[in-house]
Amino acid sequence: MKTVSKGMIYLGLMCLCLLLCFGGAVAQTGKATKDAPAKDTPAKDAAVTQSAEKAKEGGAKEAAVEAKDFVVEELSKIDYDNPDFKVQVATVSGRRAFRVGDRIDLKFRANRDAYVTILDVGSSGKVHVLFPNKWDRDNYVKAGKWYQVPPESANYALKVHGPRGVNYVKAIATRERYDFVPRDAQLTDKSPFYEVAEPKLAVKDIGAELEKRDRKDWAEYQSKLRIVEEASWRDDDRDMDRDPDRDWDRGRDRDRDSDRDGDRGRDRYRGERSERDRDLDRGRDYEDSVVKLWTDRKRYRIGEPVRFYFYSERDCYLNLVSFGSSGKVRVIFPNRFQKDNFVRGGKVVEIPTNREDEFMFRVEGPAGRESVRAIATRNKYKVYRGDYNWDRYAYQVWEDAPEKIEEDIRVRLDEIPDRGYQTAKTSFKVER
Please, what is the angle between helix 199-212 and helix 2-77, to 10°? Predict the structure, then answer.
């Protein structure tokens, strides 16, 4: 019995040892398995954070682009070809293309004593007031005298910050003093130029203020500069034959010779570019060519005819679409009377060409604002997806909702290879 008891005791101790060893191994394995995901958690968190930051950054860039488009469109609405009151802005060097980091020197003048404000919409979407500024607070200028920003004696410079894109410069001159510098515009230690915190509100306020004024008492001028990042840029972008004094006199002559029925609009860009300019432009990408769209007036009563004027530096195929104040969308060009939408570059095209009553494009109303979009393409292109029914419509009606049409146009433009298109916009006020 004693022998059996000792054997059983030894056997029991051995089993207990095995059990403890096996259990410890299982526990260790289980712990390792359970803790394994924790080792990957920081990496996963970093990936998620990085993805969220990229999405946020993409959303911010998209919002900035939308804000810039809005600001440029609102500034473009401030558009009046005053025959007696002119303001002009140009680069001192005559260049229209600059690399990131380059210095830009602007010059401007008005043909009457005036108060001048110069706004800059950068390629990044930021808006600055270039004149007046921290060092030049008095914006009163004498008639016919050229002024420079920055002045030749200045200890500060105006430099290109990028990114690649288009920079817009808008000059507004008024006969009476008015502070167009937005209240939220701020100066920083890094720059002598005011930065506008809320550009959308600022440009709408400026437009509203000018609407209150007699059109004889203000003038405007808008131009654009191309910003490139490439080190090997071409001097083709110099306006080599442009003489500001010659253009100034030519502008006066056009205004003097044009008649009161709106021929001034058609003559607005005639002769402003030489053959040498156009030869140089053929070396540039199509996306850098200039297109312009405007109307003979900025206000119309319901039922009145509208004449449109279009200018392109290059040969193109033009599609002109009107977004009416009622929400109705019409294709203005091509139309029943002008079915071929090819437009020769360097010339101003009047739409419609025939001024007889049956050919005219008329405002339908109601009171509000009607916008018009021009789409110029390198190759033959049709923006309207359906078949033109010119037996029924002189100007084809686009039946879809305006928002859907806008989106459809954006999608279709993205399909054009090598960005072989340019766009322009204008708008006018519809009154009862």
Answer: 20
